């Protein structure tokens, strides 16, 4: 019994920590946020465009901006996939009924609240598109962890 309580507390702590990470990134103003993703975008631009170092600075900036969009949306998707995995796991460990539905509702509610939070951060915006990207990441994370659990249970039944 004591171990299950520790597992429940640990799993919900992981969910809260993931939400805090998302909150901290969302609290960055536009310049800070661009700085965070800009390095990754430049790295990606250099990989995707072999002649990157030989083109003029304005053309490099255009390529970096295009890559920055990809980097930002991939980061949204990935962090929310992680949140989906953690939330689904915490809900299952806590033995709630309809764990997938509850996990989805929690992730969707957090995605919406995250975009509303960004509306109040200087230079940031509240975008419905980002809610869809975030929620898609959560759905993907929940599907992935559910598939892994099903595979593990199936292999245990065979043994």
Folded structure, characterized:
It is elongated and about 65 Å long. With 159 residues, it is an all-alpha fold. The mean pLDDT is 92. It has five helices and no strands.
Question: What's the short version?
Answer:
This protein has 159 residues and is mainly α. It contains 5 helices and no strands.
Helix content: over 70%
Radius of gyration: 19 Å
Q: Quickly give the structural class.
A: mainly alpha
Large-scale geometry = elongated
Q: What's the helix and strand layout?
A:
Elements: H1 2-26, H2 30-48, H3 57-93, H4 99-119, H5 128-158
Helix pairs in contact: 1-3, 1-4, 2-3, 3-4, 3-5, 4-5
Key words describing this protein structure:
single chain, 159 residues, 5 helices, mainly alpha
């Amino acid at each position: 019994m004591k171990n299950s309580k520790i597992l429940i507390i640990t799993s919900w702590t992981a969910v809260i920590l993931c939400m805090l990470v998302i909150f901290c990134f969302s609290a960055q103003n536009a310049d800070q946020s661009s700085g965070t993703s800009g390095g990754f975008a430049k790295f990606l631009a250099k990989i995707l465009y072999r002649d990157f170092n030989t083109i003029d600075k304005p053309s490099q900036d255009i390529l970096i901006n295009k890559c920055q969009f990809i980097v930002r949306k991939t980061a949204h998707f990935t962090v929310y996939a992680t949140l989906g995995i953690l939330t689904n796991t915490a809900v299952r460990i806590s033995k709630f009924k309809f764990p997938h539905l509850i996990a989805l509702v929690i992730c969707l509610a957090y995605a919406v609240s995250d975009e509303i939070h960004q509306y109040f951060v200087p230079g940031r915006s509240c975008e419905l598109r980002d809610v869809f990207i975030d929620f898609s990441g959560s759905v993907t994370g929940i599907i992935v962890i559910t598939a892994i659990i099903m595979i593990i249970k199936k292999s245990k039944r065979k043994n």
